[in-house]
Specification:
With about 300 residues, this protein is of the alpha+beta class. The protein has eight helices and twelve strands. Helix 5 packs antiparallel against helix 7. About 20% of the residues are buried.
């Protein structure tokens, strides 16, 4: 059901969101003859921040205990809460474990050593957004049991469905926005959103060949463009309708799309300073393009 009152991942009309949610919940409760008391809220990017930090414990030859790990966890939580006082922690992920500078696959509780370090990733959300979510659900007589990132769920499913895919990027190019997130050794490490999407490709084509966007959509729906389009292939007359027919090369449309797609890929991935150091590693990339017309037309690019 479309959720009104939210724009660009911000709640712009609290009353409208509350009323929409109330009406939908009441309808569901009537259908299933059950009154819900609590809810798990799965949300997409709401100005999330992921912060990674490492805690240390000197063991001096003794055994690593659960109490040592709990001490590190609580110390880092206090550090994050003091540093980001306007944020609330909603996820904590174990990222990496080192005992005497050697990385271990699992938490090395019970092993002996001199020095232990433990890296954690904290998933933070604005306290104002958190309060708004609670107010919205309280107005529906629901308690929020847990808030979960949609990216996290998608990442877990990718790991589940693809063996040896514990470290990867996933890029989502939607019509009006895009997103990239990183899982490293099954831990959610990074997410970034962009206020641009595949509609820029459509707008560029429309502007350069001087044909309205709705006609360009129709062209893309009925065509497939590739580098093999010859210099003598032109758009068919049927697409011009009430406009004067002009010879427009299909290769030109391909080249416009190629230039824009290259630019999008550079901003999201290849020239993104936040993840530049990671590109030196051989990391798998999953790509999801929401607009199937754009994807099918320019699959080669």
């Amino acid at each position: 059901s479309p959720l009104q009152g939210i724009h660009d991942n911000k709640i712009t009309n609290l009353d409208l969101v509350c009323n929409t949610l109330k009406n939908n919940i009441l309808e569901i409760e009537k259908k299933v003859n059950f009154v819900f008391k609590e809810a798990i809220l799965v949300i997409n990017n709401f100005n999330f921040i992921i912060t990674s930090c490492t805690g240390f414990k000197k063991l001096n030859g003794s055994q690593l205990t659960k109490e040592n790990v709990t001490y590190i966890l609580n110390s880092l939580k206090l550090l994050i809460n003091d540093t980001d006082q306007d944020k609330k922690i909603i996820h904590i992920f174990n990222s990496r474990f080192f005992l005497d500078k050697k990385e271990t696959i699992n938490l090395p509780i019970g092993l002996f050593g001199n020095f232990y370090s433990h890296e954690l990733s904290f998933f933070l959300i604005s306290k104002n957004d958190y309060k708004n979510f609670n107010n919205i659900f309280n107005s529906c007589n629901l308690k929020i049991k847990k808030i979960i990132s949609k990216n996290y769920i998608e990442g877990v499913n990718l790991i589940k469905d693809n063996k040896n895919s514990e470290t990867f990027f996933k890029i989502e190019i939607n019509e009006r926005n895009s997103q990239i997130f990183l899982f490293e050794k099954s831990a959610f490490k990074f997410v970034q959103s962009f206020k641009f999407g595949s509609n820029l490709i459509l707008k560029d084509i429309s502007k350069v060949i001087a044909i309205k966007e709705d006609i360009v959509k129709e062209i893309l729906f009925n065509q497939k463009f590739s580098n093999e389009n010859s210099e003598n292939e032109y758009l068919e007359k049927e697409f011009f309708k009430n406009q004067n027919f002009r010879k427009i090369k299909k290769k030109l449309i391909y080249e416009i799309a190629e230039a824009r797609i290259n630019e999008l890929s550079e901003k999201i991935l290849f020239q993104n300073l936040n993840i530049y150091s990671l590109l030196k590693k051989n990391i798998k990339i999953y790509l999801k393009v929401e607009d199937k017309k754009i994807f099918n037309c320019f699959e080669q690019i």
